[in-house]
Amino acid sequence: MIYIIRKVASGLITMLVIITITFILMHAIPGGPFDSERALPESIINNLNVRYNLDAPLWEQYSNYVQSVLKGDLGPSIKHETKTVNSIIKEGFPVSFLLGSIVLLAALLCGVMFGILSALNKNKWFDYGALMFSTIGISVPSFVLAALLIYYFSLKLGWFPAALWDGWTSMVLPVISLAWLPAAVITRLMRSSMLEIMSKDYIKAARARGIPTKALVIRHALPNAVLPVITYLGPTAAWILTGSFVIEKIFAIPGLGQWFVLSISSRDYTVILGLTIFYSFILIGINILIDIVYTFLDPRIKLMGTGKGE
Amino acid sequence: MTPALNLWVQERVNKTQMSNLGRMWLRFRRNRAALLSLVFIIMLMFLALAGPHLNHWTYSDQVLKNANEPPGNGYWFGTDSLGRDLFTRVWHGTRISLLIGLFTGLCSVTIGAVYGSISGFVGGLTDEIMMKIVEILYAIPFLFYVILLMLLLDPGVNTIVLSLAVVSWLGTARIVRGQVLKIKEEEYILAARILGAGKGRIIMRHLIPNTMGPLIVMVTVTIPDAIFAEAFLSFLGLGVSFPVASLGYLVNEGIQGIRSYPWQLLYPAVLLSLIILAFNLIADGLRDAFDPKTNS
């Protein structure tokens, strides 16, 4: 319990630091938000500054900003009069969340399955094949993979749409491009941890008792071997998140990543910073969640965290 | 100890230290994929230097009536939408990408090594605070920081190297700190201390040589990450600025014409992937060579 509270507290501090960094950066960016090619009259600029509270002293702006973020209000968009960061999140996040969950699930399933099969077929053709695919997955950038997939499967073969977000056929290519790398890493993790577990005494004992390989793997080896994979879920989530920027852009998926890219190219600072804070919140939340799940799965870690295990 | 014996001990110690990296190289050489990758990268460096001068086009020469030419007809890799020679641009892009990778790798590892060794060597509260900072920064993928920094600074190769280096040293700092903490406890450090070696001597003769292995590995790990990050930034429109092109920039341009002019995508995309693959294989080889135990 203490361990969990400590994790949450540390996450909150991290959030505050990130809000501060983004706030400082927002004010360090040269040029004001209302600079445009046609110079606006002084009075309009002043009114705009009052409207967005930009005439207040810096520390007051900072405390206002932190307060509104804590209340869950990430502010307006500078470039889109009718939109706020919150409305953008409401619009884009469900799509990105759906895509992200499918990618995570696909990566996890493929990675664990291929990892186990590679470990069981060590140094046979299946193992080498999986190694080759995972090496490719780690080396080919997701957007290159996406482009090549579009070229062959959409343009040459016409199996899947090149850019659309409607139904499962439109999901296949984006999911493959995003899930390949995490699946590759999980395969490697799973393979090495499986090999380690399979040489443990309790597995040998179980084998000596005549337990068939299938039950041995699923009931005895898998629960222990999967632990390193769970710690890798945090980086996987981060990867999917940043990867979604380019993948959503390439496949024209109306998700949050697409919005983020759009706000970068139109220099919509409040949206960039608001979304950065939102993404940080999601990632830190996921990491805390993974830590909590991990303590239930592996009670040893709880003792280490509080310093009692030493 | 007599002076002669002292000298003998000194010589033995020097020899084993010298052969630390030597042994790493011996083990590395046995890894055929890694060795092949190394040869490949050296070849690419050569081509990146020579490639742009192999025909009479420069990377920014535009011949608009020859726009979007397929490979052949005097253009070995074809031309892009502005009639620029793709062969020259691809090798020029390779040069930019490799430069960004190498410089970022070196800078980031240097920062990380200094930070990590201070943290590990001083220890105590300093160590705790320094590592807490790393942990907080680590919570968010470094691409976010790079994006924010790139918004702040003018686009360009220098800015990219700077912002990538500033944010990508965290992993190195952690590894170096761990290594320093481990070495600090080793018996030969105790022995050196008993023999009267000062702090400076221990750092110079023991800590630095013994962290060289992981540092070399970290540089090779950072290079493909940096090349990838730069490609990613170029893709978002935050990378190198017109008319300079990196491989990521060329891939982004290529995707736009994918339907009609696939060669504009294919050459830079394949090259970018091969470079990252080669660096990954080299890094794997070095890691195994440095620590055979992790070879699983």
Give a brief description:
The complex is a heterodimer of chains A (310) and B (296). Chain A is an all-alpha fold. In chain A, 76% of the residues lie in helices and 0% in strands.
Give an overview in words.
The complex is a heterodimer of chains A (310) and B (296). By secondary structure, chain A is an all-alpha fold. Chain A contains 14 helices and no strands. Chain A is flat. Chain B is an all-alpha fold and 296 residues long. Chain B has a single domain, classed as MetI-like (MetI-like fold). In chain B, 74% of the residues lie in helices and 0% in strands. In chain B, helix 3 packs parallel to helix 7.
Q: Helix and strand succession of chain A?
A: HHHHHHHHHHHHHH
CATH fourth-tier homologous superfamily of chain B: MetI-like
For the secondary structure, the number of strands of chain A is: 0
- Low-pLDDT stretches of chain A: 305-310
Attribute tags:
heterodimer, A: 310 residues, mainly alpha, MetI-like fold, 14 helices, B: 296 residues, 0% strand
What layout of secondary structure does this protein have?
The complex is a heterodimer of chains A (310) and B (296).
Chain A lengths: L1 H27 L13 H10 L6 H13 L14 H36 L4 H15 L2 H15 L12 H30 L2 H8 L4 H13 L1 H5 L1 H18 L5 H10 L3 H29 L2 H7 L4
Helix pairs in contact in A: 1-3, 1-13, 4-5, 4-7, 4-11, 4-12, 5-7, 6-7, 6-11, 7-9, 7-11, 11-12, 11-13, 12-13
Chain B lengths: L2 H28 L1 H19 L35 H37 L1 H15 L3 H11 L4 H11 L2 H15 L2 H8 L4 H37 L11 H10 L6 H28 L6
Helix pairs in contact in B: 1-9, 1-11, 2-3, 2-11, 3-4, 3-6, 3-7, 3-9, 3-10, 3-11, 5-6, 7-9, 9-10, 9-11, 10-11
